[in-house]
Design goal:
The complex is a heterodimer of chains A (about 110) and B (about 130). With about 110 residues, chain A is mainly β. Chain A is about 0% helix and about 60% strand. Chain B has strands at about 5, 10, 20-25, 35-40, 45-50, 60, 70-75, 80-85, 90-100, 115, 120-125. Classes of the chains: A mainly beta (about 110), B mainly beta (about 130). The interface of A and B includes residues 57, 88, 90 and 97 of A.
């Protein structure tokens, strides 16, 4: 099973700042099978990025994804108040999905 | 409006069974692979199972294999998760999700989950 490790565990930033979240895989992952999700308290996760770098429907362009192989990054160019949430990476391989443990972006 | 609504959660004793349902609307249900994903405070998000668009194939996380069974009734636009031999560590919020890509994928599309239900809570406790 491919293990995804996200860093940092918590990122404390102010509105308007840039957020950079990392996800490292224990084995090479196909970019076509890599995604990022956002989850706010009391809500289900929401798909942000698929294919490592494609924004899902309705996702603002301040969110961008990059990376390949074992290292992937989610960047939020300028944090808006509604962006403070938990972010998860996800990969798909061998007929199953695995998730990272999450990065919490909170207000500094 | 594309929507998934889970039901069937509750409190159950260890070793007992429970069946979850996921009712889909607003899209052609029979075209999409579907999943169950669960979430606990301690372990975060965990994928549980996927079922192919036609119900002919299902795959499971090792943690539930042999105890849980995923199924679907495309005539009713509904997916199910039969959970047997429940353990305390199965306590979680269970979400049903849609694979982003429609098509004839027998093992899930792998291209992300673009629709999630609101979740149903399962508590396994004596």
């Amino acid at each position: 099973e491919i293990v995804l490790t996200q860093s940092p565990g918590t990122l404390s930033l102010s509105p308007g700042e840039r957020a950079t979240l990392s996800c490292r895989a224990s084995q090479t992952v196909s970019s076509r099978y890599f995604a990022w999700y956002q989850q706010k308290p009391g809500q289900a996760p929401r798909l942000l990025i698929y294919d490592a770098s494609s924004r899902a429907t309705g996702i603002p362009d301040r969110f961008s994804g990059s990376g390949s192989g074992t290292d992937f990054t989610l960047t939020i160019s300028r944090l808006e108040p509604e962006d403070f949430a938990v972010y998860y990476c996800q990969q798909y391989g061998s007929s199953r999905y695995t998730f990272g443990q999450g990065t919490k972006v909170d207000i500094k | 409006q594309v929507q998934l609504v889970e039901s069937g959660g509750g409190v159950v004793q260890p070793g007992r069974s429970l069946r979850l349902s996921c009712a889909a609307s607003g899209f052609t249900f029979s075209n999409y692979p579907m999943n169950w994903v669960r979430q606990t405070p301690g372990k975060g998000l965990e994928w549980v199972a996927v079922i192919s668009y036609d119900g002919s194939n299902g795959y499971y996380a090792d943690s539930v294999k042999g105890r849980f069974t995923i199924s679907r009734d495309n005539s009713k636009n509904t997916m199910y998760l039969q959970m047997n031999s429940l353990r305390t560590e199965d306590t979680a919020v269970f979400y049903c999700t849609r694979d982003r890509e429609a098509g004839r994928y027998y093992y899930g599309s792998g291209y992300g989950m673009d629709v999630w239900g609101q979740g149903t809570t399962v508590t396994v406790s004596s």
